[in-house]
Each structure stands twice: as C-alpha cells, then as structure tokens.
Amino acid sequence: MRIAGKALGSLAMGLCAWGLALHGKTVQAGELGAWRINGFLENDTRVRQDVGLSKERNTLRLEADREFDDLGAFTGNSLTLKLRGTYDGVYDLNSKEYGRDAGGPICLEDTSGLIPAGCVAHGRGAFGGNNLQYGVFNGVPGAGLGQFGFNLANNPNDGMIVLGEPLHRPGGGVAFGVPVRPCDVDSRGCLGGYMDGSENDLRFPEFADADRLDWLREAYFDSSLLFSSPLNGEEQELFFRVGKQQVIWGRTDLFRVLDVINPVDYSRNNIYDELQDIRIPMWIATAEYRMGPVAALQDLNWQVVWNFDKFRPNSLGQCGTANVILDAGCFFRGMKNLWDNGGTVSNFALVPPILGQPGMAMTTDFGPNQVGIREVKLPNWTLSNTQIGTKFEGVLGDVSFSLNGLLYRSQLPSLHGGSEGPPAISPFANLLLPVDLQLPELLPGVGQYNTVPRQVPYLIAFDIAFPRVKMLGGSLDFTIAPIKTVARIEAAMTWGEQFPNTLRPSLYSESRVARYVVGLDRLTFIPFLNADRTFLFSLQIFGQHLLDHELEQGRLGQVGMPDWKDNWTATLFMQTWYLQDRLQPKLVMARDWKAGAYAVQPSVDYLLSQNLKLSIGANVKFGDGAQKFNDCRDCNPYPPFTAYASSGGPLLEAGPIGLTGFEPLGRFRQGPLGSSDKEDEVFITLGYQFF
Amino acid sequence: MKRITRSVLAVLAGTLFTAPALAQSADDVINQTFYPYKAGAPTAAGVNVGVVIDKNNADQFKVVLDPVTYDLLKKGVQPSIKVGPTDSFDVHPKYVEATRQNIGKVKIVGGNLEGYSAGRPFPELPSSSDADAGRKLAFNFRHTFSAGDNVQIKPFYWKYRNAATGKVDRTVEFQFNFLNFKHRVAEQPIPAVSPNPNDYFRGIYGKAFSPQDVQDTQLMILGFDQDQKASDGYLYLGFQRRVRRLETSQTTDAFLGSDLMIQDFEGYFGRVAEMNWKFKGTKTLLMPLYRHNEQKLSDEYKQPDGYKFVAMTGKGECFPDVTWQLRQVHELEMTPVDKSSPVGRRVMYIDSQTFVAPRTLIYDRAGKLWKSWTIGHTSTEHHLPSNKGKFAAIYDSFGMFDVQNQRCTTGQFRTEIDGSKSPVRMFNPQFMRSGGA
Prior knowledge:
By secondary structure, chain A is mainly beta. Helices cover about 10% and strands about 40% of the residues of chain A. Chain A has helices at about 1-25, 90-95, 200-205, 275-280, 330-340, 665-675; strands at about 30, 35-50, 50-70, 75-90, 105-110, 120, 160, 175-180, 215-230, 235-245, 280-295, 295-305, 345-350, 360-365, 370-375, 385-395, 400-410, 415, 460-465, 470-480, 485-500, 510-525, 535-545, 550-555, 560, 565-575, 585-590, 595-605, 610-625, 630, 660, 680-690. Chain A is globular, with a radius of gyration of 28 Å. In chain B, about 15% of the residues lie in helices and about 35% in strands. In chain B, the strands form 3 sheets. Chain B has a 16-stranded mixed β-sheet that branches. Chain B has a two-stranded antiparallel ribbon with strand order 3-4. A two-stranded antiparallel ribbon of chain B has the order 13-14. Chain B contains 6 helices and 20 strands. Chains A and B meet through strand 10, strand 11, strand 12, strand 20 and strand 21 of A and strand 6, strand 7, strand 10 and helix 6 of B.
C-alpha cells in the first residue's frame, strides 16, 4: 500500500510534467550570450517479468558550448560542458526488489540426502554446529568442527537471495547467500570503492562518488594550431582536446574491439543503451596531427591519447540492482561476504561414500577468511598507472582505415586466487590429527593442523585485480558497390588479459586475445512496406579467439578456462522511418553462438512534437540459459579432507577433476545474453528537450 | 595503312566535335551563354514588372509558366506569383574567362570530361539535333558557378510542413558548406586544392544542430572529378559519435525525414552517369530568381547582423514568397539509369545564363507528378554586403512540395561566399569525428 501510494504520487507528478511538455512551445537550442545551451529531460520506465518495476529513471541533461576568439596562433577554440543527473525511483517504488526491503531469508539446496527438506537455512550448514540433521557432520553443537561455522549475528539470514537467482536453481552445484540491499542498509559483501553504493548512490548515481564528479559528464576544451607543413608548405593542423571526455575508436556498434579507452557503465541498462550514454568519461588529453593529404593518402591523422585520470573499471552493476551484467556483482558480493563473515555454501562437502552415493554433497558452513573475495585492488593514481594510446587514421583511395595501439588497464576484473590469492585460514585449522599422517600442513611433532593463514593453491579465495593490457589493432571501411553495401571491419589483438582457469593453482591465467568485427550496412527499399524511405539493415558479426586457451577433459568434465576458445556473436539491426521520420520502428536481434542465447528488442520511437519523443519497446531473451562449468569444489586445496577420491580424484594432490555446476564459472559460457535470460522487460521512454 | 586511316578518322572526329565552336567566334559563344540579355531582357505579352499572376489570370500567362506552376496557381495552392525585373545575373569574370579559354577543347569520353580545365564545359547553345545535348547541359550544370568556388550556408532552416493544415511538424537547423577541389577560378587556391590524391572535384558538408533526434548529425559527400566514379560519403550520428561510410548510390531516401532526397540537393545532386538526359528545348519562362534585398523578408530568426530570411507563402506556407522573373531556360528531361529508383523522371529547368536549376518537376515511377521543387536564387549583388562582387547566383530559399502526400519542406538560407568559412580541412572525416562545425 505504501508502495502504491508512492507510485501514484510519482505517476501524477510525471503526468503533470509531460502534460506541460506536450502543450509547451516548440523550443530550439538556447542562446545565453555566446553560449549555446540545450536541456533535456528523460523518463525511462521498465517493467520486468516476475519482478515488476525494474527502472523508473529520470535524467536531466544540460549541454552547453561556446566558441572563443583566437588565442594567438590557436584557433577554433571552444569549451563544451555536458552535465547529467539521474534519479532512479525504482529504489523507492519497488524497494522489495531493489532497495532497502529487498531479499529475505534463504534456504540453500543440499543434495547430501541427510536433509529431508532438501535445503538448509543460511547458517545451518554442515560442520557449523547448528544443524543436528547432519549428525556427525554437524561438528560440535554450537561450535562446529575446526574453523568451520560462522557467527550468524554478523551474517544473519535476511536481506539475501541465493546466488544465481532467478536464472537458475543451484542444480547440485555451489550457491550461497548474497546480500542485496544497498550498502548503507546492509554493508555485507560491499567492495569498497568498487561496488559499495548506498541507497542514495543508487538513486542518484552521478552523485555517488564526490571525487569523480560524474554529474559533470563531459568538460573539455578544443583548440587548433594551424601551420604550414615543413615538407610541402600546405596548411596542416594540430588539434587538441583536453578535459573530461569520451574518446571513441573503431567503426563498429555495440562491440568494443577498439573502443576501449573509456570504461563503460553497464549498470545503467546492461548492453542496451547507446554507448555514448554509458561510456564513463575520463580526464584525457588528446593531440591530433592532421596532416591532410600525404602522398597517395587523401587524409592522414596521427592522434596521441593520454588518459591521465585515476583508473576506473567498468561498472558491472551492484547486486540488488536491475542491471548486473553477467551477474558478476552478485557473485562478488556473495564472495566478499563469505570472506568477511563466513557463510553457507550449497552442496560443497562430499558425503563419504560409505554413507551416501558418490556426488552427494553437504551444504557447508565456512568461517571468515577461508573462502571468498578479500579485496579489490584498484590501481592508485601514479604516472605509470595512466594510460596512453596512439592512432593513425586516414583515407587511402576508397578505403578509410585506422591503426591503433593502446597501453591500458583491463576494465574488467580478474580474480587472483589460490596460490596468488589472499592468505586464507584453513577450515581444518586446529584439528588435532595423528602425526603419522604425514600431511604437509600438520605442524611437526604436534599433530595440529596448520593455523597460520597462507596462500593455498587452487583455493577459491581471491583478490580482484585489474591487469595491464597492451592492444594493437586496426579498422577499415569501404563500399562494395555491386551490392550497394558498406563493409566495416575492426580487429585487435591484446596481450595481458586474464581469464579464470581452474587448471592453474592461481585459478587464472593470461591469454592473448584476438577480437574482430565484420559489419555490413545496406539501405534497401521495400516499397510495399515503405514507399518513401529505405530500411537500414546492419549486420555485425563479432568474433573472439583466445590464443592461449587451456581446456582439458577431466574425469568428471572439462577443466580449465570457461571462456570459449572461439565464439561469435551476431547482431542484426533493422530500422525504417515513417511520417517524415517522426515514426521509427526498430528491431535489434542478437545471438551468442556458443551460448545459444538470443535477444530480440523491437521498439518504436515516435516524435510527439519537435521536442518530445516517445519510445516503446520490449527486450526479450531466450535460448539455452544457464550453463555449467567446472566449479573447483573438486580442486582439493586441503588434501585429503577436500579430495573427491570417491569420484576418482587424487587423495593428496590438488587440482580439479571436472566437477561442474552453474556457479561460479558458468556465467562465462552464458555471456551477457544468456546471463540475463530471465530479464525480459517492456519499456516506455519519454524524452523532452526543454531548452 | 591502318595507322593512317585512324589518324584521318581522328582528325575528322575532332573536326566534327569542334565544328560548332568554329562556326561561331569565341566572343559570340561567350556573349550568348553569359550575357543573353545584353540586347535586352526577354519579353512576353503582359508579363510586366509588378504583374501578379494567380488562378484568375494564370491562363493568360500559361506560355511563360512551367506546367506544374501553372497547375498549382490554377488550383490556388500557390496563391500568386509577382513578376520582378529580369536581371542579368553576371557570372564571375574569371569563370567567363576560363570558359573562353576552354572553348572547343572539351569532349565527353567514356562518360567523363576530357580536356576540361575550368569554366563552362560546353558554352555553345544546345541544339536539338545534337543527340548528346542533354548530357552536355548536365555537365554544364555540374560545373556551374552557383556556389562560387566555396560557399557556406549558415544558418539554414528547414521546416517540415503539413501542406493541408499548415502545421509545422519539425524545424531543423543546419549548416552546409561546399567546396570545389578542382576547376577553381575565383578564390585561392586556383586552379585546384593540392594535393588531392583521390582527385575529388567537389565536397559538401552539412551538420544539423537541432532538434534533439538529429542533433550533431553530420553528412559529407565528396564527388570525384571523374563522373563515372561513385562519390565517397560519410555520416556522423550524434548519438553514436562515430563516422560511418555511406553508400552513395542510394540518394533517393527522404533526407532526415524531409521531403528532399539527397538527389534533390542543388536541383540535382547526383552523377551525370546516373541519369539519361534529354534536351527538350530552350524556352522563356518565369523563374524564382530575384533580388534578395528587395523581397518581403521574414522577421523570424533574427541575426546579429540584421540579415533577414525569405518569407514563405501559399498553402501551408510551402512556397518562397519571392518575385519571379522571365528567364531563358533549357528544359532537360532526366530518367534514372537505375530502374529501381522511386523516381520515374525529372524535368529540370536550367537557367541558361547561370546554369542554376530553379525549377524541377519530379515524377514517380507510374509517371504521376510527385514533387514540385523550387529553389530561389538571388544574385550576390543584392544580398549580404560580404557577397558583393562575388558574381554568383546563390541559393536563397526553397520549397519542396510533395503533391501526392500534401506535405512540403521549406528552406531559408543565409548564404555566404567566403573561402575561410569552408576551409579544405573541413572536408575530411576527421573533422567530423571531432564534432565538426
């Protein structure tokens, strides 16, 4: 009822605002002195299947620019400012799904056969001492076994979801509780400086980080220095742009092969907003030597880009919000909570074969600092941590081309675990064992299992890092005249990217990556559908090849890198225009080949007036959905206690044998489309230019 | 023997091509093409300065009206035309001189001009007996001096109107720039921009400033000197911030939702090779050529320098409210080579003195009238002070009336011939990438 009241109030205010807009005068860009100013309002409302309201985003944008007189030899001087503020009302209007009332108590799947209900409440797992149904595997009642178990007062069973919801049930694999409320309401699992948004931060994302000034979306100064070429006397130009800006490389839409200078905010609308709205502007200086025609080249330019801003990763979306790409934010938050507070993990510890069937696993209570994510290591600002790139771009005959090189930090996180992860406490620490077991972790002559935190090969304890990456690439476009089609090609090779890899003791490895996109654009008349205007057909095929891919067949399944060695994603965009371009139907279709995942987004834009635009559409995903991969429960970091010997795994040797589950690595096979398979939604967007 | 035969044939062929030029002195040719009103302005019965032609008296003036203008007047769609004085739109003397130097030297070989340096390629009066007369006129039109060597139109307001209701559906603010890479005569660099490895002849650059859905859209088309070669085209979409290559053979799409196709720009914006051309005769007709400063001008869009735009009139305010004057025009019929074109044919009236195209009638594939295209031209001598002495018939107003759909798009120009405002560096994709003009 409270929600309904808020919703009605908001709706009424919205209608009033749009009513004014509908009856307002036609406006053009404003002039204020020498400034040219535009102002925009946008409301984006989305409703998601089984969830209800998923977005009630209201955005105010102000854009201003002005030109200045020549400053000595510098000409074409101008200053551009772009300001943006957003309020997403979903945290007030649907706080049960996204906000302070989200989540609740959870029950975690248990396939041990020891729990009749088939699931146990968070905090009631095996070895934790709080569930007598586990019998001897409960440990000492109230105390548990060794370092297993955790304090429920620090990590209560509330405000959580089960990792992977709603895409899949655990399905016999691992899962754990993930806190979903904003970090000022529930600080569990929040990663400082990375995914730690308060309720207000989520409501007003541009004002979340006072240091970053995200509301000042862009602020840059342009200037040109014209001079005569020392070679041929022709006029040439040095063009400078300095300030907070987006630097866009490449020729393809949606896919970021070369367009990697600015990080991207996927939390705004996953991959579906225009990149210019979700690139995160950075403080960058660019200098461009515009040589004009050189020898056989009609045009040649050399650009140097220096991103001197403090490093910033992609925003992947905080768990508990509507857009969490790959569900990574939930995995991270759940893992961080596991590390800080301990927690209950589904289907983890094997039931000894003598008591059950092979593969039956008990949902297990881990203590703090044993498994999970310890911290995110965001690079500090140092000169060596700034990023630099260069580009040659030109026109040769009928072909436009670019050659690009960039030294940068990966904007995607890399999980460094196991032998390179944080020193972890063994859950078996303090257990007194016979000294003649000859186990490596037994303290000599004492029989007490090691209590000293240490880096444990193959242990699922991680720090998040952002590795340095080198990229070389290029792009070109040209016309294929006989079929009246424009071709766009973009390709890049990177060195230094890191990927999960269960074959490695550190649970990750580097791979060189080749990425490429081939795009074809064609304007085609379909007279019986539209006599005046063509249809734009834009087909793109994106490919990714991991040159150092590692994948082996283990006893139970594949082990190694969950990312596909080769994969392709195809998109087809279709659009036409009616009523003097006031009505624009569009259709976007995408397929992730290996994931077997599809997305279809039909939409219609309608210009209600010169200044008011309405967009209505739907976003539907379907396909194979969740995928499984080796989850490293079988990695046996603490032999022999964690050995999967009953399934043929080695008793004393660490390393996986191919046990699979949806979590945590299936997401890399699902990709962004498959991971959002249950996020079908409809949307209505109103955009109004008021100045 | 074979070699001798070929030589003789070549001489004979050359003689045949140059025969018309030899038949007239160069002065005669120049006077006929550039100074047709030296001996006096054309006259027609009752067509006197100040006369207003409307549906009541249109029949009386049918002989000096193109058939569509006559029809629109009869129906009252275009309420009236006021007759203005016929001016000599003197073309820049350096263009005239370049033409003189070129007389008899230009040929069409393989669809391209051969022997052409600058000026009007075929200044001789067209002859109905010349099977290639239409194509020669097309090349003259291609190389007209209407926009000087370079020109800027800024601001440039387009209004998309519902002709039935008069409602303005959209107003788009543009800037357009034109640059001749080659065959330049009046402004440095002469005779060509150099280096020019791609051998471009002409570039057009446009940018939309408003409204929001087209804001920052930029268009650039670079035409090659060789007419047989398809132009390069680039499009920058503001919301993508990316330059995309355009396939330029598709010029019959409604441009940004207006009633214009790219093909309509400047009267006809396409390659000569894309049309079959037929010369239909030379006539004396009323055309929307006028003195800008003496027109009834609009108070809309006030400019800092006091410049005023041409006002619009008629049904839905679809027609430039300007005076028309009697002009000697060549009638050209054009049919698309590409049979899939939505255009069946175009009839273009080219002003014989300036080779601008003030009137074009566009028919659909069924042969029905589709659009009536009017481009108002003024002499630079009656326009901005800065244009004085530039001697060009510059674009000043337009009305594209879609007869079938009862819509129109009107254009109001502020045209300025100033090389510094259309620099060469503007005409490459990198300029667009950094945001453009």
